[in-house]
Amino acid sequence: MLMNKLKLSDRRFLEEIFDMGGGYVLNFSDRTFAEFFENELSINIDDPKYRSNGTSKAKRLRAFLQIESEAVVAKALRALWDHREAIREPSDAQDEKARHQKEHFFDIVHLIEGAASTARTDAIEKFAENETLEELISAIERDIRADKPAAALDRLHTYCMKKFAYVLDQKGIKFDKDAPLQSRAGKYIKALESEGSIRDISLKIMKSSISIFDSFNSIRNNDSFAHDNEIVDRVEARFIFDAVTNILRFMKGFETSRFGQ
Questions:
Q1: pTM, two decimal places
Q2: Each residue's pLDDT tens digit, 107-135
Q3: Domain boundaries, the chain
Q4: At what angle do helices 181-195 and 149-170 cross, to 10 degrees?
């Protein structure tokens, strides 16, 4: 759970925001606390699994934040924030401290939402018997398991270069060995178009991926561990990783359905 990976200062900030001192949470009674979780999240906050460290509202909320998924935690935090805002005096939300608190709070929520699940690596397949390829795939999977998508981007770029070289070779399509990633992708997509085996909407989506791979070159050269770069932040790195692997996932499924490759 990402909550356990948040900085101690962020966890303390959340406790301060929700007035969790002395076992309380905001203005909730035990009854209204249970009703809130039932109405907003369809969750029984009185469940024994949330009482492992104690029965107070604060202790149950801490347990909830520690054991539930990122998606559920983010939804709960947003709902608690809305409740907090509803019971505050309007003037309390206008000062500089309140604005800073709101920005900090939603930075934390966005971080949690961006980690709602581990990135999928099923599209990263061993398409040929090659020791270097095996090591490359293993390195990508290690980075993703360690929740380090930024570290995986450089290796994912290398994987894409190898993947497109392989599929072009399989189709007997000549290409310059120094051709950049978007050029290789373009040749593959042009082959799909000439074969007439792909629906128009899928072809349009694949054509749009050429610009994605072009930008991926820049990310690899300027924002990954390939060089001494300032690394892209974790949430954006996850977004880029998912976008690129979704294209690879389509290629894998499409080619397998036609040729069993």
A1: 0.58
A2: 899 888 766 566 788 899 889 888 899 99
A3: 2-114, 131-259
A4: 50
